[in-house]
Amino acid sequence: QVETLKAKLLEQTQEISRLRSELGGTDAEKHRDLLAAENERLRQEMKVCEGELRELKQQQQAPCRACAHLQENIELQEQLSQLQQELEETRAKLAELDLEVQQKTNRLAEVELRLKDSLAERAEEEERLSRRLRDSQETIASLRSQPQHIKYIIKTVEVESAKAKQALCESQSRNQYLQEQVGMQRQVLKEMEQQLQSSQKTAAQLRAQIMMYEAELERAHGQMLEEMQAMEEEKDRAIEEAFSRAQVEMKAVHENLAGVRTNLLTLQPALRTLTHDYNSLKRQVRDFPLLLQEALRSARAEISQAIEEVHSTNRELLRKYRRELQLRKKCHNELVRLKGNIRVFGRVRPITKEDGEGPEAANAVTFDADDDAILHLLHKGKQVSFELDKVFPPQASQEEVFEEVQALVTSCIDGYNVCIFAYGQTGAGKTYTMEGTASNPGINQRALQLLFSEVRGKAADWDYAISVSAAEIYNEALRDLLGKEPQEKLEIKLCPDGSGQLYVPGLTEFRVQSVEDINKVFEFGHVNRVTECTNLNEHSSRSH
Ligand code: ADP
Ligand code: MG
């Protein structure tokens, strides 16, 4: 029995735990917990009973005559049966409770199902109601234009369904809101009416003003009309006056005309004499060609005679000119004899910024007031004087310097060899003197201008060929600046004709017709200069 009870108890405990896991903390669970506690207590009791039973069994096996135990045994058996009954009862109660739990679980599931259903139903209902509400709102909106009918329609809706009552309620609240709105609108309307009244008042004021202006305008119009009238009268008066004045003038013109007529009568005899004169002139003109031919013939004879005379004079002049040339050549020779074949001029340039300041930069050159060929130099505290052909002071202009060498250009045209060159240390003014600046050219440009102008002057009688060549002596090597290969080194040789002149074989020569031509050639030559090529120093004294 105890064994089966144990098994059942275990089963029930398991069942209880299963139920507990299935259900949450409900009333049934609390009840079950209580039952479990009871169960536990019973088990304890049963254990005690078992112990007692075992003792009793042992006592039964032993011979017991006193039979005090028998009594006790009977009592215990009674107790046991009582306990068994109690156990039975408890089991029945447990089964009952189990059933109850089962039922409750079933009911719970049912209730859940129903809840779900009712939730779906409610959603459906809500949906339906909202649809209905929308419909009702639309109806109300359409009916709002006829507010007197709203009540009737609301009543109809009421009758239609109990559920619509709710919608009606909402509609009523909406109606309320709309009425409020209408009230508000009415307020606005009232305000606007007030505004309208005030603007009407202003309009009336403005109208009165306009009336006033119109009256003024009327008045001005009347005034203007009066003024116009007055002006019209004045105009008439002026026209009358002008008319009378014109009549007077007309009379005077008429009188003048009469005078002119008498004049015309006196002019007629004059006209007659003029016609007479004209006729005689006409006759003279007719005879004029004959006279002219005669005159032309005599003039031609005179002119040819004059030309003959000029011709002979010309020939005479040419002869004189040739003699003059000879003379000039002689003069040149004389000049060379007197002044020397080589002339040396000194030119002192003005002090420039580059000369610096202080005692190191003191001026060491002075001039002789009486002799323009003397130059004094202060050298180591002592004055040294030099005598040259001429000394140009700093203030001497390019023209003045050129004037001194100008005669050489003429000599050149006459067939002499001429050389002009500048010598001095770097910065002394060689380039300035020879080339000068574009605005103030030096000897080169001026000499070439003169050369070409002289040649042009003699072009009628003489043919001149001018050619240029450019060479550079740099570091004792001679190079052709106009050649195709400027790097090639040339040589200076003595002319083989025994004239004692020097020449450079292979030096390039260009025929030129004007100063511009020469300048172009020089530009080309400049590019080939060593100082240009190496770009070392534009004014290098190693390049000549
Ligand atoms: P060089 O050719 O002898 O080295 P430059 O002719 O270049 O010297 O002259 C040096 C500087 O002095 C240049 O700036 C030049 O313009 C100036 N100069 C030379 N001579 C005169 C002069 N007579 N008047 C004004 N400036 C001069
Ligand atoms: Mg120079």
UniProtKB/TrEMBL annotation:
Organism superkingdom: Eukaryota
Compartments in which it is found: Cytoplasm, Cytoskeleton
Domain (Kinesin motor) ranges: 341-544
Any one GO CC term of the record: microtubule cytoskeleton
Binding site for ATP: 424-431
InterPro entries on file: Kinesin-like_fam, Kinesin_motor_dom, Kinesin_motor_dom_sf, P-loop_NTPase
Keyword Ion transport: no
Disulfide bond among keywords: no
SMART domains documented for this protein: KISc (SM00129)
Record-level Gene Ontology MF annotations: ATP binding; microtubule binding; microtubule motor activity
Coiled coil: 2-146, 189-241
A family per Pfam: Kinesin
Annotated keywords: ATP-binding, Coiled coil, Cytoplasm, Cytoskeleton, Motor protein, Nucleotide-binding
GO BP: microtubule-based movement
Similarity annotation: Belongs to the TRAFAC class myosin-kinesin ATPase superfamily. Kinesin family.
Protein name from the UniProt record: KIFC3 protein
Organism the protein comes from: Ceyx cyanopectus
Gene: Kifc3_0
